[in-house]
Amino acid sequence: MEENLRxxxxxxxxxxxxxxxxxxKIALRRAKGLRDFGADVTVIAPRLAQPMEGITHxxxxxxxxxxxxxxxxxAATDDRAVNRAVGEEARRQSxxxxxxxxxxxxxxxxxxxxxxxxxxxGVVSDGTDHHKTAAAAKAIRAVLEELE
Length: 148
Description:
five-stranded parallel sheet, 3 helices
């Protein structure tokens, strides 16, 4: 079996608390995906790259304890120490966490989301080629849109 083989797991996020730490483009893309699938999203960041409706924005830096009650967490700041701290807190509380800049610290991997015609697919790679993942997701989205 491949070393980086990852099992896809689809879960119902409706009404579940998701905490995203970071306000940049990657963090907000993750927040949007979680929001679009029904999660109650809280973004913790001193500022957002762009405004986003349908989330709770805590306009401050991450602090220990911010993950209390979360169903899942995403660490996607440009600060390695903050991402590490979010990952550590999540793992201590058995909260699934995606750490954007360090695959080894993740307990789940945030997929490229592909939706269309009532179908949902997620694409992840072994972490070595993000361009290949993006190309695969684009192709899958096109196929899903064509299905009747």
